[in-house]
Structure formats: structure tokens, C-alpha cells
Write a structure and sequence with these properties.
Layout lengths: L1 H33 L4 E3 L7 E8 L2 E7 L2 E4 L3 H26 L8
Antiparallel strand pairs: 1-2, 2-3, 3-4
């Protein structure tokens, strides 16, 4: 029974990990594709645009005017990426452990 509970828990964590990873990948990809215009609007100021550039950590579009950054990706994005990597590695180790575990003796 404990093995079944472990498999169900591992499967649930895997599904959540996969959905979060796909969502993160979609957000970053859409931002990369839509941010290629070269300029971004300044919040609260009509008809003023800043320069758009891409940064690699945390990945995302950064908007700035004369070198002063006014918009960029949240630091939370970097934490989610690190969390995805840690959980992914943990799932691999868990899968290997469950795969190598002996089957229970149901006749005992």
C-alpha cells in the first residue's frame, strides 16, 4: 500500500512539474517573440517608449530609458526555473529508486 501511495505521489508531482514547466516555457517564449519590436511603452506616460532588450537571467524582456530600467522579469521567474530543475532531478532519482525496488511479496 505504501508503494502505491509513493507511485501516486510521484505521478502527481510529475504532472504538476510538467504543467508548470510548460507554462513557464510558454510565457518566456511568448515574451521573446512579442518583445522583438525594439521598444516598449512607459507605464503611465502616453506616447513615450523605452528600449527593449533581452536578459538571460532571469530570462525576460527588460525595458529601459537612457540606461534606467523601468520594467523587467520578476526574480520569482528565476526561482521557479531553479525549482523546476531541482524537482526534475529529484523525480529522476525517485523514478530510478522505484524502478530498482524489489516487488513486494504478496504471498507473505
Amino acid at each position: 500500500m505504501a508503494r502505491l501511495a509513493g507511485v501516486v505521489l510521484a505521478l502527481t508531482i510529475t504532472v504538476v512539474w510538467f504543467v508548470v514547466g510548460l507554462g513557464l516555457l510558454a510565457v518566456i517564449s511568448l515574451e521573446q517573440l512579442s518583445g522583438s519590436s525594439g521598444d516598449c511603452p512607459v507605464p503611465g506616460v502616453d506616447s513615450l517608449y523605452g528600449d527593449s532588450s533581452w536578459q538571460w537571467w532571469p530570462p525576460g524582456e527588460v525595458c529601459s530609458i537612457n540606461g534606467v530600467e523601468f520594467s523587467g522579469p520578476s526574480a520569482l521567474r528565476g526561482g521557479v526555473i531553479v525549482g523546476e530543475i531541482v524537482v526534475g532531478v529529484g523525480l529522476v532519482f525517485l523514478w530510478r529508486r522505484l524502478r530498482d525496488a524489489p516487488d513486494p511479496d504478496w504471498t507473505a
